[in-house]
Amino acid sequence: MELTLDRLSKQFGEKIAVDRVSATLTPGVYGLLGANGAGKTTLMRMLCDVLRPTSGQIALNGRSVRALGAEYRSHLGYLPQDFGYYPEFTALDFMGYMAALKGIPASVSRRRSLELLDAVGLRDMAKRRIKTFSGGMKQRLGIAQAMLNQPGILVLDEPTAGLDPKERVRFRNLIASFAQDKIVVLSTHIVSDVESIADEVIVMRAGSFIMRGHPETIVSALEGKVWECVADAREAAALESRFIVANAHYTPDGRNALRVIADRCPTPSATPLRPTLEDVYLHVFRDEL
Amino acid sequence: MRSLICFELKKIITRKSTWVSAVALYALLCVLMAANILQAVAYDNETGQRYSGLTAINYEKSIVKPHAGLLTPQLISEEITGYQQEAFATVSPQEVVDLSSAAAYDLMEELLPAAECARLQSPYYGYLLSPWAQNGSGAFQTAARMQLDGTDPSTFYEALQAKTLRQLDAGLDPSSAAPLTNAEYDFWKQKVEALPTPFEYGYAGGWQDLLNCLSFLVFGMLAICIGLTPVFCGEYAARTDAVLLATRYGRTRLIAAKVAASLLFATAYYLLYAATIAGIILACYGTDGAHLPIQVLVSTSPYNITVSQAVWLGMGVSYVMTLGFTGLTLLLSSRLRSQVAVFAIDACLLLITGFVGTSAKGLLLKLFSLFPINGLSVGVLAKNFLSYSAGPLVLEPATAIALTWFVAAAASIAAAALIFRRHQVA
């Protein structure tokens, strides 16, 4: 399975949301990173055929998804950002409804729904109305419905929003077990999620892909540019004004320990640190912070 | 597909706005129907007693039923002659003919024994004398004038046809409410001249009341519109459109299921509403007179149908209107984001057209008569010479209304499906 994005653009009036993006996605997990307004959600909507590109096209195995229509969508699983539910439906109703829309036979639908509800920890809530669910439970239900048709292409927009740390771990494991031979595209603001799940990270800014690669490769680009500086309050303030400070905490002796991203050693006493994806994110988006 | 329709129906029915409005407007109907029965009033002219509710209905039946039967010219002649003999036994017709209605009745009560006076004031004689009635004169003065003029009472049907054609001729006047074209005039004239006679007379109070109450169905249509308002725009508002449209059948079967569920909901609620109206009225008034011609209720009606056929025709037309409003609501729902805007447009089309319709003239009158409140009135359905024409093609109101709303339903549903199918989640 190969999903090709060919000079894909989307423009809303004067605003260019996605700007001539090209990529070839093969099975694997792709983590989309970008600040708000970078074009991630717009790109995902176009991937899911719910938003028509202004120009360019998306092709599945060489065939335009527009021409494929329902056949393309039958390979899709999609969790939109902040999507709504039907408050009077039970979780099982909702799964049954989505199964019917995805063309899953009734004989299979219930069993698969219960399996997925179990996988996202909602098995006991299957017959409870969605209006009684917390935000995290709704998000887990959304993840479950996206996987109902065992999609070849799974698109998840902010799937970990509203999940507590334990649920995030469960989600990561679920994706890991699901992702084999499938294309999974997910976006999240929680950089550590991408770091631990994604086979490839795509960084978007102003509608374009500005960086792409394996997390370790991307992170390695920042090798030698992340430092720990221990400083008093006055020195810390000076460092914060000159460099990107990824983290700050107090040492036991009351001084400031700063995680500084700088091309050159910021202070004589600075010690080099191993960069993380979050450091890369902060470095790339330093102008937008 | 069946499961999708069930889920869509569940979405419609479980929405709070749907069931609150459906229950409230059904309760309103029950109150209106109860009031309709309780407010039925009849006066016993012999005793002066006033009856109301079911007693009044039974009293009306009792005074009409003895006269039930075929109104042959010979029978009519005998009845009117007998009326004139009794009425003018002690008073000259000359003294009555120029009196006002009230003065004529006062005089009749003064001259005749109570029982006889009551009998002569029966609506039966009013009906028999109606073809010759002028300027709202009552049976007493009409009978007097006929006696003075030497009018042959056996010419009832000729006189009625002449009266009906006079009303039709008035439609040729360009200043009339709905001026007729030549084709329309010929169309109605043929219908009037083709009416079969003699008529059968009898009690048809239930069907008459049912015809008068058809407009109550508008409240049912309103509840249906409220229920269907969120079918498409509710998905936009709840942001469920993205997940639905990304599914295999999100742009095909889902739309068909939404339309099917909407039509099922509209049909079920319409049937409940219509059955309640018909059930209450026919249970209280009885089904007597179903086979009687519409002319028993509206003597100058140009239609060759029975009273029950007129009711079923009205019901059929109102059902097509309901489907039309279903389609229109779906179209608005697919196009607009705001449920309030969808409902406001529906409510205007359903209710405001009724308020302004009666004062309209010409094309506006014809336009507003296509909408439920006016279109379901007895005047439009069975009485007025209101027609819709295009060249030589002339349609009577029921056909024109049904055709209009059927086309509106089909076109609106097709457009709604196309709009949702092409909807972009931005």
UniProtKB/TrEMBL annotation, chain A:
Limits of the ABC transporter domain: 3-231
Keywords from the UniProt entry: ATP-binding, Nucleotide-binding, Transport
Coiled-coil regions, chain positions: none
The organism's place on the tree of life at top rank: Bacteria
Gene Ontology molecular function: ATP binding; ATP hydrolysis activity
Transmembrane spans: none
Keyword Cytoplasm set for record: no
Protein's name according to its UniProt entry: ABC-2 type transport system ATP-binding protein
Naturally occurring in which organism (per UniProt): Parvibacter caecicola
Lineage: Bacteria, Bacillati, Actinomycetota, Coriobacteriia, Coriobacteriales
From TrEMBL, chain B:
Pfam family, one: ABC2_membrane_2
GO cellular component, one term: plasma membrane
Keywords: Membrane, Transmembrane, Transmembrane helix
GO MF, one annotated term: ABC-type transporter activity
Coiled-coil ranges (or none): none
Keyword Cell division tagged: no
Membrane-spanning residues: 216-238, 259-283, 310-333, 340-357, 398-420
Record's protein name: ABC transporter permease
